[in-house]
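job 3f2a | input accepted
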Amino acid sequence: MESKQFGTRILVRLDPGDEVVASVMRACEEYGVKLGMVSGIGAVGRAVIGLFRTDTKVYIKSELKGAFEIVSLLGNVSTMDGKTYLHLHANLADEKHQCFGGHLNEADVSATAEIWIDAVEGGIDRYFDEKIGLNLIKF
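job 3f2a | predicted structure (139 res):
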């Protein structure tokens, strides 16, 4: 992983074998980002994506293996209990151009990934909402 800051924006380049979520987390911690937006593109060979079932309040996770393009990586940065908290979603396309998407739990870079972190001044914390079953933004 290599990165460089441009004003309030940070460009992160990931290399083969880098894990996307952990790398974005590390970049946010290194640059002190407490609030921001994440976007990116790239290629991965393995990913774990999830879907939150509102009826059971359980995440259903699926592991994808093969050649996938990150068609879109979107998310945000906040904090929870004083620690960096990422909420990332991704659309991944296979060689037949079929897309798979959901909450991004893990993804291993196969070629490269180019990720922008747009830092915003300030901070927002999260709390666990028992009724909904998710970590919600607390204003």
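job 3f2a | Residues 2-138 form a domain with the 60s Ribosomal Protein L30; Chain: A; fold (CATH 3.30.1330.80).
job 3f2a | closed
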